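pls read this stuff:
=====
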Amino acid sequence: MQFGPGINVLLGENAQGKTNLLESIYFLALTRSHRTSNDHDLINWKAKEALVKGEVQKDLSATPLEISLTSKGKKAKVNHIEQSKLSSYIGQLNVILFAPEDLSIVKGAPAVRRRFIDMEFGQMSPKYLYNLAQYRAVLKQRNLYLKQLQMKQKADEVFLDVLSDQLAAHGAEIIFQRIAFLEKLEKWSQGVHHEIAQGKEELTFQYVSPLTSKQVDSVETIYAALQELFQKQRSKEIQQGRTLVGPHLDDVQFRVNGKNVSTFGSQGQQRTTALSVKLAEIDLMKEETGEYPILLLDDVLSELDDSRQTHLLTAIQNKVQTFITTTSLSGVAQQLINEPNVFNIQHGILESTEEE
């Protein structure tokens, strides 16, 4: 199927496959689903593998992308050449997904916000993606060793020092880049939020960590601070059998007029904050990569009032290739979207149609 460079509207009743199409695009970009952490869920029950192929048009060149998924794992290809690491594949196609559950970025658990940062910034920075993968691997190993120390299966803590050093090194890089990323995202978000809130509110971000502001001045100071924290927490970590400090436990706080919007904000303020952050990502990704991402809006319009719909659709018009899933194109959306490419989806079949 050939999609238009502007707004592509995917029309269909519920449970017809609209979200599946967005999931395919998302999977093609990030090699993972936004709906499940189990890749096997993406393979049809009657099939042995799943395959997603697409062609990305950039300026005058077209790049074929392909991901195959079997019980043995994933294979990703760029220009028909298999990539040895998934991290070298990610970044070929950049996407931003906005779904109703993304409101949980603001009001959900810290893990949701960490995942948001890792997924979005990972597309823009191979270095961040590398350190994140290394950190998770060492963290898993360190937690396993702490469990062994807890069960008195090991008496030697020298290896724990080695693992702590490795974790602090990768953790310092992650925290430093997260803070830099959030500062840039905050700048773009503030302009959008100021406009939607008609100048009555100011949006700010705060990175929440046991580290003090002085300890996050550089990678070196963060590394030293993490080392110190690991030493202080050692007996408690051995007692509990897990790592108790580090970027895997940090959080981001969104504040409106100085107050934590997830705790004290109204539902309207929470929706405005989530929308501001998502729209800001578009410009930040353009700033970082030189190209606008593809925007995936999964049943978002029904969750937004007319005012927020207007800001969203005006912001993306003639700017980014967008895919919108909806059961009907009506109201503000019908008035604001110029010459949309409309597709019907029924029983998993996608068909192009002329706009009525």
Observations:
- The two ends are 20 Å apart (CA to CA).
- The first strand starts at residue 7 and ends at 11.
